[in-house]
């Protein structure tokens, strides 16, 4: 029987299924298997293609760079014009050509380290900031030269005052004529003209309102030396709108470049934009400094959700500038400065505030974590109004020892008086009614018959009384509040950690350079002003009067008890 079975011819085709065999959990058809296999191969092929494209792109980039460098070298050797030859240019050339050109033809060689990193940064917006003498301004002058072979290159170099600008122009004379022998500086227009037709305009801008001088103009490179001299980001923001070019090459190279020492009237916003929470020398998506939100392409755009552009912070160190470090004289000078100055200018420390108006303010002593305030502590609301500049509203509670606890802040730009009133009412929904409300007294000013800002808010249901505008007394009262109460050994003013703007301003607001009794009004001071109005109200004495009344009442009850024997 066995033999018979073995001798039978083999059956062709699919073997019959064994009805007793266990059923597999997944049945994958042959077609499905084939489809999956094909998908796998397609994926692998795609990956290979991507890799090859990347390599090709790198090679193309290298070839382009080599071509550009070769043409620069050709010009330099033939004397048919000039070009900026940097060390990075030479590095890319074959050794034979490098030897031919020689080191003497290198007009500008960046110092290794931060200066090199600043000059090679490809991000749209870069700050080169830190120690004095690190080579920041020199690098800023050299940076736009790399596009001066292009006739459409338009550069703009800015400083705050004319004197400071003159210093930069003098330095540019040494560098620019060497790099481009035909380059001429036209004094009347304060502009460098290069043989190709490219231009770099050196100008100064002191007042925000003067930005209209740049209206309708376009630049593919904008540099601002000592950006912290601008008290607010207004000029820097406006100039970003002028950054454009119709030249295809330059469109790929639109750059904002700034330099700064730490501190200064604008130290607060520069620090917030480029330094706080950012890793140095690493690109990060640009964000709105008011909201902290990254700028991204809107929904529906092919790049939806991706960053609009990137920023970078390159920290400057004196030790990286061999031209000033060589004999140690400059370093010795910086080391002899008072501590705060030394930290800023030698160590490039952004955390120390120059000439702080409230050096006694301490995050440890004056800032507390939010907690539920007793509802019977009298409430006080104070505000400074602005539309283009921010409005600030602060809410405080007064405890029975007459200490103020600032527990909420509202800080926003571009709100009309009515909109601000709505926001205040919304914020106060669950609060006890404020006992005292005080607003910048200039909000009652009127130029015609129309309603004033204060009136508009009152009509919307938010009542106010005008503030005491005496700046010096207000500052003295803030000092008194920051000091400890001798009885409790606690400060008379505490701020909830959620009130970021008032904390930041008390910590960083500098003294005025012209009036050492007052703060520098050019720095951001809206939250400080609101606090000044708050501490200058009669309300701050209200709680203690209340307490004294309570004590008197208790005494009366006691006397009644004793007299009438209740
Ligand atoms: N790459 C360089 N090649 C030649 N000289 C350089 C270079 N970098 C800096 N220097 C020299 O160092 C000097 C100081 O540099 P620079 O004025 O740029 O410093 P800075 O960081 O702007 O200082 P400050 O913070 O005081 O403004 C320059 O005047 C220049 O002579
Ligand atoms: Mg400088």
Structure description:
The structure is a single chain. By secondary structure, this protein is α/β, with parallel strands linked by helices. It has 20 helices and 16 strands. It has helices spanning 2-7, 30-78, 87-92, 95-101, 114-120, 136-142, 162-179, 234-240, 248-251, 267-275, 322-325, 329-335, 339-345, 363-366, 417-427, 453-459, 471-482, 500-508, 526-535, 539-564, and strands at 125-130, 154-159, 184-186, 191-193, 199-204, 221-224, 255-260, 284-285, 310-316, 367-368, 379-384, 391-398, 404-412, 436-439, 465-466, 493-496. The chain has a 9-stranded mixed beta sheet, with helices on both faces. The protein has a 7-stranded mixed beta sheet with strand order 10-16-13-12-11-14-15. A hairpin with a 5-residue loop joins strand 4 (191-193) and strand 5 (199-204). Bound molecules: adenosine-5'-triphosphate and magnesium ion. The site of magnesium ion has 3 residues, from helix 6. Magnesium ion is lined by residues 136-137, 225.
């Amino acid at each position: 029987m066995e033999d018979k079975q073995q001798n039978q011819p083999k059956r062709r085709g699919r073997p019959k299924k064994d009805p007793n065999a266990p059923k597999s959990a997944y049945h994958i058809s042959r077609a499905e298997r084939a489809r999956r296999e094909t998908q796998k191969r397609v994926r692998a092929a795609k990956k290979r293609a991507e890799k090859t494209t990347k390599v090709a792109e790198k090679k193309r980039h290298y070839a382009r760079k080599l071509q550009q460098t070769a043409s620069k070298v050709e010009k330099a050797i033939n004397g048919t014009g000039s070009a900026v030859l940097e060390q990075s240019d030479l590095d890319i050339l074959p050794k034979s050509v490098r030897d031919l050109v020689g080191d003497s033809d290198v007009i500008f060689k960046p110092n290794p380290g931060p200066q090199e990193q600043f000059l090679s940064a490809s991000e749209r917006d870069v700050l080169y900031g830190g120690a004095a003498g690190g080579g920041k301004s020199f690098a800023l002058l050299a940076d736009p030269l790399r596009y001066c072979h292009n006739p459409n290159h338009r550069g703009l170099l800015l400083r705050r005052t004319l004197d400071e600008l003159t210093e930069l122009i003098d330095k540019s004379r040494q560098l620019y004529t060497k790099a481009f022998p035909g380059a001429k500086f036209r004094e009347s227009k304060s502009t460098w003209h290069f043989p190709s037709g490219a231009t770099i305009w050196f100008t100064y801008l002191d007042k925000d309102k003067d930005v209209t001088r740049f209206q309708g103009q376009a630049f593919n490179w904008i540099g601002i030396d000592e950006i912290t001299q601008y008290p607010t980001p207004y000029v820097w923001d406006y100039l970003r709108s002028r950054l454009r070019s119709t030249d295809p090459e330059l469109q790929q190279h639109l750059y904002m470049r700034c330099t700064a020492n730490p501190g200064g009237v604008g130290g607060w916003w520069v620090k917030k934009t480029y330094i706080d929470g950012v890793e140095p020398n690493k690109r990060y998506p640009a964000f709105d400094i008011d909201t902290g939100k990254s700028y991204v392409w809107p929904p529906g755009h092919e790049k939806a959700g991706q960053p609009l552009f990137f920023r970078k912070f390159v920290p400057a160190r004196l030790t990286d500038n061999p031209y000033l470090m060589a004999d140690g004289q400059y370093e010795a000078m910086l080391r002899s400065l008072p501590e705060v100055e030394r930290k800023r200018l030698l160590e490039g420390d952004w955390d120390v505030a120059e000439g702080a108006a409230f050096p006694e303010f301490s995050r440890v002593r004056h800032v507390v974590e939010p907690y539920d305030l007793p509802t019977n502590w009298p409430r006080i609301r104070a505000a400074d109004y602005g539309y283009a500049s921010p409005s600030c509203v602060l809410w405080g509670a007064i405890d029975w020892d007459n200490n103020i606890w600032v527990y909420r802040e509202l800080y926003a730009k571009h709100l009309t008086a009515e909109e601000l009133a709505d926001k205040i009412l919304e914020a106060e929904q669950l609060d006890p009614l404020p006992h005292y409300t005080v607003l910048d007294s200039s909000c009652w000013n009127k130029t015609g018959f129309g309603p004033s800002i204060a009136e508009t808010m009152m009509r919307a249901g938010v009542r106010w009384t005008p503030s005491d505008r005496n700046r010096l007394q207000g500052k003295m009262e803030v000092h008194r509040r920051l000091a400890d109460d001798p009885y409790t050994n606690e400060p008379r003013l505490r701020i909830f950690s959620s009130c970021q703007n008032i904390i930041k301003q008390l910590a960083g607001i500098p003294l005025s350079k012209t009036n050492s009794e007052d703060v520098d009004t050019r720095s951001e001071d809206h939250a400080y002003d609101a606090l000044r109005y708050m501490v200058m109200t009669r309300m701050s004495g209200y709680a203690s009067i209340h307490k004294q009344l309570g004590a008197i009442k208790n005494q009366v009850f006691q006397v009644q008890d004793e007299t009438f024997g209740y």
